[in-house]
Fold this protein.
Amino acid sequence: MFWVIFAVFFGACVGAGATGGLFPPGAWYRALKKPVWTPPDWVFPVTWMVLYICMALAGARAAVQPDNALAMAFWALQIAFNGLWTPVFFGLRQIRLGMAVVSALWLSVFGAMLALWQVDWIAGALFVPYLTWVTIAAALNATVWRLNPAEAARPA
């Protein structure tokens, strides 16, 4: 039964991750000024695949535990914001709104990590790399905003 639950959580992750294929970075993103510490393009899909496996494992571990309601609510919230950022940033090309979404994502991942930790410490620990990556993504979004003020001020 655990692996069926894992598959459901992984399906949610794949759904959120599919937005990367629907809204790829493209020429617009390549033309933006970015910090020298921007990860190379190949790092993103590799990192996200590892993170999605960790997220699904965390969700599946917590789902079978008692008193998991808050952890499951935060898990659902974070995957919603996870799936929203790519269409906002790359699809709509809204750098400022992307910053708002990634900030909400960071808060929801942090909340999920804490709530998961209360239910199953391994599930909580599986969210630590995710929070680290979202921190990097938020810093990258903020730096792109700072380096591209005219593009960031573009109306929706």
Remarks:
- The mean pLDDT is 96.
- The chain has one domain: 2-152.
- The domain at 2-152 is CATH 1.20.1260.100 (Ferritin).
